[in-house]
Design a protein that fits this description.
Largest sheet: 9 strands, mixed
Mean pLDDT: 92
Strand content: 25-35%
Radius of gyration: 17 Å
Number of strands: 9
Low-confidence stretches: none
Helix content: 25-40%
Strand order of the largest sheet: 7-8-6-5-4-3-2-1-9
Oligomer: single chain
Distance between the termini: 29 Å
Order of helices and strands: HEEHHEEHEHEHEEEH
């Protein structure tokens, strides 16, 4: 165990699927991920994200990304956490997958988000990444609900939600690049996923015991 992992045990957490490895990135690993983002994440005339981070000038994008990563660490508590996973395929970084929650011990629900570099889209990696964190949230952390959002005109994201069995859960109107857009919400129950959905297979989690309390708090005596 490294010194960093001893102080921040999340560095030892990983999720493995048949094709992908999700790990909690160190700063050096995250720099490699930022290089993937600099190569492009979506078409310039479309914005799939609620936070329009890819609109930043390329000279600022990596610095902004680092600041965001550091903020997730600094703001971590069992009541409010946000974990960013680096996603690798055959040892090569291809994107990021996030899982976060507010008041998890009470609500038992979590959100997910992700991005993939353009060369890695359309190969089913998005579905596999989602399955990985659903397995972590439902099977390992005993969550009851998973929530996901996407814009109405983002068929790829909507297809991932539908493939995993999410149900429509309403929408809000958001300002996207200064124009109104439908921001859809989807919800998935643990009972419709764990051990029942065909995508919940071949997934393993390692390193959680050392950091489980960071997600669920310390049990009361």
């Amino acid at each position: 165990m490294s010194d960093a992992e001893a102080w921040w045990p999340l560095f030892g957490l990983s999720v493995h699927t048949p094709r992908l490895t999700l790990t909690v990135p160190t700063d050096d690993m995250y720099a490699e991920i930022c290089d993937v983002a600099l190569g492009g994440v979506h078409a310039p005339d479309f914005m799939p994200f609620s936070e329009e981070w890819t609109d930043a000038p390329k000279a600022d994008l990596a610095r902004n990304a680092m600041q965001f990563l550091w903020s997730t660490r600094a703001g971590w508590s069992a009541d409010s956490w946000h974990l960013e996973f680096a996603v690798h395929h055959q040892g090569r970084p291809i994107g990021m997958k996030a899982i976060w929650a507010e008041n998890f011990s009470v609500t038992r629900e979590f959100w997910t988000g992700s991005w993939l570099g353009l060369p890695y889209q359309g190969q089913g990696f998005g579905k596999e990444m989602r399955a990985a964190v659903l397995h972590l949230g439902f099977t390992q952390l005993a969550a009851e609900w998973a929530v996901s959002n996407s814009y109405q005109d983002n068929p790829a994201s909507r297809a991932v939600n539908q493939a995993h069995g999410y149900q429509d859960d309403g929408f809000v109107i958001r300002s996207r690049r200064g124009k109104p857009a439908h921001w859809l919400q989807y919800r998935l129950a643990a009972g419709d996923w764990s051990g029942r959905h065909p995508l919940d297979t071949g997934i393993t989690v390692t390193g959680l015991d050392a950091c489980r309390d960071m997600f669920v708090g310390t049990p009361q005596p």
